[in-house]
Amino acid sequence: MSYLIKIMLKPRLTSIMTLLVFFSCKNDKVADTIFINGIIWTANQEFPVAEAMAIHSDTIMAIGDSMKIQILKGSSTQIIDLKNKFVTPGFIDTHVHLLMGGNSLLSVQLRNADTKKEFIKRIKEHAITLKPEQWILEGNWDHTLWGGELPSKEWIDEFTNENPTAVYRMDGHMILANSAALKIAGIDKNTSEIENGEIVRDKNGEPTGILKSEAMNLVLNKIPELNALQKNDAINKAQQYLLSNGVTSIHDVDSLGGLEVLKKMHEINTLNIRVYSADPLHDWSISAKNERLDNKYLKNGLLKGFMDGSLGSHTAAFSESYADRLDDKGLMIAKRDSILSWIRHAALNDFQVTVHAIGDEANHQLLNIYEEIIDANKMEDLRFRIEHAQHLRKSDIKRFSNLNVIASMQPYHAIDDGRWAEKLIGPKRIKTTYAFKSLLDVNTKLVFGSDWPVAPASPILGMYAAVTRKTLDGLNPYGWVPEQKISIEQSLYAYTKDAAYSSYDEDNLGSLDIGKLADFVILSDDLTKINSDKIKDVKVLSTYVGGKQVYKITN
Questions:
Q1: Complete DSSP assignment for 241-308
Q2: Can you give the pLDDT at residue 28?
């Protein structure tokens, strides 16, 4: 016997919404858990706020009024009083480097080293803890914090001679290698220059240890691959960190061999975060032969490529020269014909494609390639993505929506790069840098991520950045390029419903709706009500994935 239960939302929540819930007594389908007395931001524009939610197994079975939803209560149903706390759908981070991020938590921490002395000190202290021949990796340093001088191998050789070192600049497009690593890679004064990369040299022609873009691979390809246990440790560390930030789903944009470990974790029920795993675009033919995964926790089918490098390393490709280097327009990492061929074949083989593009020339050329493929093949719902979409020509902004190209952006970068970007590209080009509002104004699908470990994997900090655009140095109290600020609601959509769309997951994730997976976050404050300056202080109290609590704050 089935009953139709009508749960009416209170007038203060909505004036029009009547929620229909089907409940079968015959199979005793009652709620496992009911959450009451909350401020539940649903990401559903038809009923944006509710106060209660019922969960059965891993799925939302009802959402609405606290009193009336309790008709779904059974003898074993757990009732949780939210005590007026703010609830959102689980955050989706659309750009994470999972293994790199996990390793960064286990390696030397250079992200906030703000002096040359501190940079050296941290590497020295980390080297002491290692065995001989163990590599020092990750790091994610930022030379702008100590005035802009690039580090060199001489800074660290004295105490890393037994530990090959290859530590990334924060953007991932430049590394510092010590002499031990350079020797392993066979890099010396006589090494030829690398196409689409640079071996930085001193006045005598000797490598300084700084390698940019494709030149990095001379060293990176010599690093021993992590074994399964090391990968497992890194991924476990990463998922704990992500869940503590309210992130319930990620798009891992370079699996680095972690997919097999993730599959094993899923098999033994230790994978608590949902992963959309990407493979290299140029290897599309290999990926086409591999197993396709598509379960609730783990799927693949995303291919990622590169157009150019990064702004901070002067490897982002621009149509005009850098403001501080008039003979430099950056560089393209791949040839246009190659990218075009890879994307066309990937799309024809039912892969989703996303490509890294930062400079305005890289974005322009990539949009041209996407348009050519769309026009030639007449395929529908490709959902091409551009990762970063950082610096755009004004004339290209409308093309995102015209072509249904998703702008996958990382808002924290705006308040970080905003400290120094104008020095590199001048006052005109920054007007369409991290152009969140301009893209939304033309109905572009805008989705947010972190680029972790390049930036913190904190959607709270990402939303603070998108809403305030206050740079980390405190020098832009009204926001850096303030006309590109967006609202907190727009930022929430970029981390939830629209992010789910960007991976074809809108039927299961991204909003708190009946029948969708019960992924949600309980926060300390109502993001829609507090002063924008306070957004960064909001705490993640609990994170739920599939109705199961996977994180709870301890202090």
A1: HHHHTTEEEEEES--TT-HHHHHHHHHTT---SEEEEEEEGGGHHHHTTSPP-BSSSEEEEEEEEESB
A2: 55
